[in-house]
Design goal:
Number of strands: 3
Helix content: 55-70%
Order of helices and strands: HHHHHHHEEEHHHHHHH
Number of domains: 2
């Protein structure tokens, strides 16, 4: 990613293009392209060269392995990371076992649903992999296919908004936009994430989905992601806090992973209680929970059991049925953010 950013033409890269576009959209007149290009050429590109050189040097000196076990005080570092992320005192072994138990429980539920869809042969992961490759479940890997996918997400958000009054007295007024992750950061970005609106309302909330490979997103998997990132998930919880007149700014902008991610997972379950899923989409909902359970196994496996990235990725693919590229991106994140999974 750094080299991609560095090798882009100074006058035609993401940095200058973004500045010029936003100035134009806000009606700010001026020659921004020329001065910005000069800054990129004389300041930013040399700085990127230094950063790339340093990363290559550090790579040569980095101890082998993917987990924090390989560095001094790694065990204590991971215990602290788990405590911070979970707000509990669970040990790595307890989290690992919790993940394995949940994988078994959710897999049993999925077995019943998949058999009802005529998918009876193979492990849960193998059957989900087969479903993921069903042409009827896939959007074309074209600009038109990506546009159709995002349109379907918008339709899902609209349909869920109609159901919210059944269970919520208030819904957020902040608009939610759904966008593809920018191409220049796709390789390192997570599969989907939420970006809160600005407090002054000058920028809407954004639900980003990584469309580097459209094949990562079979149709039956999309509703649960949308309910997680959008409504009744992150967008509802975070926007209502931001719009509240009864809490201080610090509470409006603070993020606590256990609470925020816990709410978003509950939102997927709430959508199930609101009967928002079709039978096959319910398989996608349970697959998303299977994915979260597998993350507990993988995170602790990497950081305390010396799993390498290949073993972690293989476990994700075999357990969840998610494609290898998507699973690989997730594993890379777990390596760099111990305890977050």
């Amino acid at each position: 990613q750094l080299e991609t950013l560095r090798n882009a033409p100074a006058d035609n890269g993401a940095l200058v293009g973004s500045l010029v576009r936003r100035a134009r959209e806000k009606g700010i007149e001026g020659n921004f392209a020329g001065p910005a290009t000069e800054i990129v050429r004389t300041k930013i590109q040399p700085a990127l060269d230094r950063q790339i050189a340093l990363m290559k040097e550090l790579r040569g000196r980095t101890p082998a392995g993917a987990g924090v076990w390989r560095i001094p005080d790694g065990e204590a570092i991971y215990a602290a990371a788990l405590a911070q992320a979970t707000t509990t005192n669970f040990t790595p072994d307890e989290v690992h076992k919790m993940g394995l138990d949940q994988v078994a429980q959710i897999s049993a539920e999925l077995d019943t649903i998949l058999k009802g869809q005529g998918l009876t042969k193979g492990s849960i992961g193998e059957r989900l992999t087969a479903l993921n490759k069903d042409p009827q479940q896939l959007y074309p890997s074209t600009a038109e296919g990506r546009a159709a996918l995002i349109a379907s997400l918008n339709e899902g958000v609209k349909a869920m908004y109609a159901k919210l009054p059944q269970v919520f007295a208030e819904v957020p007024s902040a608009p939610l936009e759904i966008r593809a992750v920018p191409v220049e950061i796709q390789d390192g970005a997570s599969n989907g994430y939420y970006k809160r609106a600005t407090l002054d309302g000058s920028r809407p909330a954004i639900y980003f989905i990584n469309l580097k490979d459209v094949g990562d997103w079979p149709k039956y998997t999309l509703p649960s992601l949308t309910y997680h990132e959008g409504v009744p998930g992150h967008h509802l919880q975070i926007s209502l806090a931001q719009e509240s007149k009864d809490i201080p700014t610090l509470r409006k902008i603070s993020f606590f992973g256990a609470y925020s991610e816990g709410w978003a997972l509950y939102a997927e379950q709430l959508a199930d209680e609101l009967k928002a899923y079709t039978p096959i989409e319910r398989a996608g909902y349970l697959q998303s929970f299977l994915f979260r359970a597998a993350r507990l196994v993988v995170d602790t496996g990497i950081h305390t059991r010396k799993w390498d990235r290949e073993k972690a990725t293989a476990y994700m693919v075999e357990t969840t049925g998610f494609a290898q590229p998507r699973s690989q991106r997730e594993v890379e994140r777990y390596c760099t953010q111990p305890g977050q999974a």
